[in-house]
């Protein structure tokens, strides 16, 4: 596993808009990260979403799992359904990030990127169920991956941030309205990464 950075600013491109993205590295120790990563990989009820692209059905290049307080819009099945129940680990992480984000979350989406071929394409989390200016808390374990953002109206305005193992990134402001984000594929060999995005689903 990669070392945690001792320099909070090391993972950020200069000029990263702090009103959109807040970065808190080192929320969990390297040892905690290793244990949690293995536990999530082994114990989560992973699903691979099938989406329609033109007239073909394709599977998303990553695995997902959805946990929430009650029946909600489920990101893994794209419909309202009974979610998985909070595990003790997820609840403990939720309470920790709620203190920093100052938001009470009612759900979490887990994404499992098995290697450099796994990714999430450019998108915004702008579903009605999240409200107009959602605060989303993103916690990463395992392989460091680059998180890219680009301004919808001018794709040349873009930034990257390296999401280190054990870090928390808070997405807020008009990030989901006016910007898109992605985790690109990588040609370099990549180990497993599990990302948790805590959300408030209405
Ligand atoms: O894996 C990540 O860091 C981002 C995941 C993401 O954008 C999403 O689940 O909507
Ligand atoms: Fe997203």
Summarize the structure.
The protein has 202 residues and is an alpha+beta fold.
User: How many domain regions?
Assistant: 1
The portion of residues assigned to helices is 10-25%
Q: What summary fits the major beta sheet? A: 6 strands, antiparallel
CATH-defined architecture: Sandwich
Describe this structure in words.
It is a single chain. This protein has helices at residues 30-43, 88-101, 175-178; strands spanning 21-24, 50-53, 56-59, 63-68, 72-74, 79-81, 107-113, 120-123, 136-142, 145-151, 154-163, 167-171, 179-183, 193-199. It has 202 residues and is α+β, with helices and mostly antiparallel strands. The protein has a single domain, classed as Jelly Rolls, CATH 2.60.120.590. Strands 1-12-9-14-7-4 form a 6-stranded antiparallel beta sheet. Strands 8-13-10-11 form a 4-stranded antiparallel beta sheet. β10 and β11 form a beta hairpin. The N and C termini lie far apart (37 Å). The structure holds 2-oxoglutaric acid and fe (ii) ion. Fe (ii) ion binds at residues 123, 125, 181.
């Amino acid at each position: 596993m990669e070392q945690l950075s001792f320099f909070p600013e090391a993972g950020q491109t200069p000029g990263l808009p702090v009103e959109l993205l807040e970065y808190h590295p080192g929320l969990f120790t390297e040892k905690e990260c290793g244990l949690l990563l293995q536990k999530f990989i082994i114990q989560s009820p992973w699903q691979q979403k099938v989406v329609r692209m033109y007239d073909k059905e394709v599977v998303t290049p990553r695995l997902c799992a959805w946990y929430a307080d009650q029946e909600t819009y489920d990101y893994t099945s794209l419909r309202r359904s009974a979610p998985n129940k909070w595990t003790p680990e997820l609840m403990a992480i939720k309470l920790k990030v709620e203190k920093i984000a100052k938001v009470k979350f009612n759900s979490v989406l887990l994404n499992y990127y098995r290697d450099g071929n796994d990714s999430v394409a450019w998108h915004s989390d702008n579903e009605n169920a999240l409200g107009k200016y959602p605060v989303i808390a993103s916690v990463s374990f395992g392989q460091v991956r680059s998180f890219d953002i680009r301004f919808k109206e001018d794709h040349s305005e873009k930034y990257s941030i390296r999401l280190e193992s054990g870090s928390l990134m808070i997405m807020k402001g008009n990030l989901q309205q006016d910007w898109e984000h992605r985790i690109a594929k990588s040609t370099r060999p990549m180990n497993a990464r599990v990302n948790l995005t805590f959300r408030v689903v209405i």
